[in-house]
Description:
Blueprint: E1 4-5, H1 12-18, E2 32-34, E3 39-40, H2 43-53, E4 55-56, E5 59-62
Antiparallel strand pairs: 1-4, 2-3, 2-5
Amino acid sequence: MSVMHYPFNVQGYGKLYRDAKNVPFYDHNVKxxxxxxxxxxxxxxxxxxxxxxxxxxxxxxxGSCAFGR
Length: 69
């Protein structure tokens, strides 16, 4: 699993936001699988979880995770 932990005030989150336009799911309400093997209803939900937990979560693939929550 490629999940990295960052302190709360990390500048990397701004980079995630700037790179959002490069993620095909960012403005769509589609399910996607995060690198933490958790299914999210949208890219925004995934980023909120990343910010809340302090872990960097990226898109693993579109659709639900096979064994995720």
